[in-house]
Amino acid sequence: MKRKYIFILAVVIALFSSCSDDFFETYPATQITTPEVYSSVDNIDAVLNAAIRYLMEETPIQANPGLPALFLTHEVMGEDAFARDGRYGFRDSYPYRDPFDNTTTRCRFFWYLQYTSINHANNVIANVDEAGGTKFKYLKGQAYALRAFNYLNLVRQYQFTYIKDATAMAVPIYTEPTTPSTVPQGISTVQEVYDQVISDLKEAERLLPGFERTIKNRPDINVVYGLLARAYLTQEKWQLAADYAAKASIGYPIMTPQQYTEGFSDVSNPEWIWGHPQTRTQNRGGYSYLSYIETTPYTTDANGTNLYYGYNAIMPDPHFIALFEPNDIRRSLFDIATQPAEALYRHYRYRKFRNKYPDHDGHIVLMRSSEMALIEAESKARLHDVAGAVNVLNELRVKRNLSELSTSVYNESQIIDEILLERRKELWGEGFRLYDILRLQTVPVRLET
After folding, report:
1. 118 near 147, Cβ under 8 Å?
2. Which residues form the RagB/SusD domain (predicted)?
3. Residue range 228-251: average pLDDT?
């Protein structure tokens, strides 16, 4: 028997609106405004590095591993993942309480995390003079990209999709550094927030050509193209979305079937356009993103030494495996514990994500070429270019051990359905599911388990 969980957006927005007045105040970052801090490239680079690490690693409580907590919340608010009862972290996300109910810690955390990151970016933008030279220009461009990334997440998270109502009130916009005495801004419309996102990304697009990063967590021109593709996809500006998605993936070939099975924990993966590397000394340990989503159970080695793997807190829905064709390399990552003595007895385990041990320093994926291919394919299909959409989708399918689809078999509606299904399969666990539900104005159906 089916249990249909209807995702009523009005209820979600009402929950968000129920947050207390001080919920809408931003949490200012520690002010670093003395002129000498911004007088050298090295100092500014250190400020920007701290801003990025803060966004990815800030952990006020164990169950909020930085921005990846948002990714995990978005996954369990869909139909293809669930939060195990009695495990750390995301039980309140499954019934749609996070991040909109201010009785949960995650509600306030998401708000101040992203606005603090915005304030870090605002400090760099306000204090860096791009006329100081190419390196100053590159740092300012990265700050614009970081600010746009946060506002794009916020506007998609806290309001109906752009196409439904661009005049709806969304979130406040801050473009100058704030202090504890700053007068709070009023709430801006969806249109105003998207205008700010596009403006920031266009500035980054102007400033970043030629920038060659040494660490993949820095937003470069490909990342900017990818963020523009995401924004234009949600705005249904299909040609722009397709064009920028194609540009974003240049130089980042889709990973092979073998590479797909290697654990999604290393930025050296050729298709990772943007990712956050963690090190032995700079990671959240057992609090990390991968600790929550990895399904390898705790175990011991032959010497009895504890091998701490995942909490198994977030699992694939038992029906999720049915979406995959038999030869799909991704299907091979599923197994099921069949013996009562086994950990996770009668649960499907999906080994897409595996942390790095013993230091829990697995890397965090933020943008991949596969996502860009799916944006390009969907955009082409909605522009009535079915053949073009099929060709792009096939580039991904063959890298997942699947046969190519024929352009003569699918009409526009059918190929769009195939692409949207592929998004669910390919991007599972990476934080896109809630955004897609809102963007497409669909109803997730959770089946009886």
Report:
1. yes
2. 346-439
3. 99
